[in-house]
Amino acid sequence: MQTANGTALKEWAAVCAALAAGRQSILLRKGGIAEGPGGFRIERPEFWLYPTQFHQQPDQLSPEGQLALSSVADAAPPPARLRISLYAVVLAVKYVLDPVRLAEVRDLHILSDAAVRQRFEYRRPGLFVAAVDVFQAPTPFDLAELPRFAGCHSWVELDSPLPTAGLTPLHPELGAEAARRLAGWPD
Question: How many CB atoms lie within 10 A of CB 181?
Answer without folding.
Answer: 20
